[in-house]
Design a protein that fits this description.
This protein is mainly β. The protein is built from 3 helices and 10 strands; from the N terminus they run H-E-E-E-E-E-H-E-H-E-E-E-E.
Length: 168
């Protein structure tokens, strides 16, 4: 879901393929890492669970992203699942305003940068890096997490939506 500029050389069939993939509704996350110049974030919807034991997750970043080098070099990263109504923050980190000031973070000693007011936070150590086509897949080993209830922000067909939490 990162909104890096689409190269002009993309053929119509590639654009159509991207639209086809947009037919899959996803949650929206902000990934964070401590870069050489401080904390940065990136909006992604390529997040998925891989394994419960060990606790592994995966997401991918475009090799052409300005933030690729920082995420590729980091030993750990944070995953922040966004709440419904948080599309402004998703847009911020999707469109290039990606630096995070220290006063925007929660204290998390030894962890990746942690954003406040999210449904779920995962602190991950990089388990494996896998180059795949024009993306780098990052598999993270979840070392700490915090999860709260609520409605989640979704992305479908190029638009934000809401996944409603149901009572149990």
């Amino acid at each position: 879901m990162t909104l890096e500029p689409v190269p002009d050389l993309l053929a119509d069939s590639t654009r159509a393929y991207r639209r086809a993939l947009g037919a899959f509704a996803t949650g929206v996350c902000i990934m964070t890492v401590e870069g050489p110049d401080g904390a940065i974030g990136l909006t992604a919807n390529s997040f998925a669970s891989v394994s419960l034991d060990p606790r592994l997750i995966v997401w991918s970043i475009d090799l052409r992203s300005e933030r690729h080098a920082a995420f590729a070099a980091a030993g750990r990263f944070g995953v922040h699942v966004l709440r419904a109504g948080d599309s402004a923050r998703a847009d911020r980190f999707a469109r290039g305003d990606w630096r995070i000031a220290p006063d925007e973070l929660l204290p998390a000693p030894g962890a990746a940068p942690r954003l406040p007011d999210v449904m779920t936070w995962l602190d991950c150590a990089v388990h494996q890096r896998l180059p795949m086509g024009d993306h780098l897949m990052l598999i993270g080993r979840v070392e700490r997490f915090d999860a709260e209830g609520g409605d989640g922000l979704t992305y479908f067909g190029g638009r934000y939506g809401t996944a409603r939490e149901t009572a149990t």
